Amino acid sequence: xxMSETGVVTxxxxxxxxxxxxxxxxxxxxxxxxxxxKKFAEEYEKSLISSIEHEQRCTDEELTLxxxxxx
Length: 71
Prior knowledge:
The protein is mostly helical and 71 residues long. Helices cover 63% and strands 0% of the residues.
């Protein structure tokens, strides 16, 4: 559960930045001697990339709607 927690995030890119930071900090895991750790790191990074892409799309959509005065 702790792996998925981001703590308090603020601003329009808060969650996006939190995911990017997690991805950056876990890069060392991919160099670990343990094959299990490396495999986990690869899968976790895929999950983070998916979350980053999702949050970027959501942020972009929300900004577009704000600019158009829809929300």
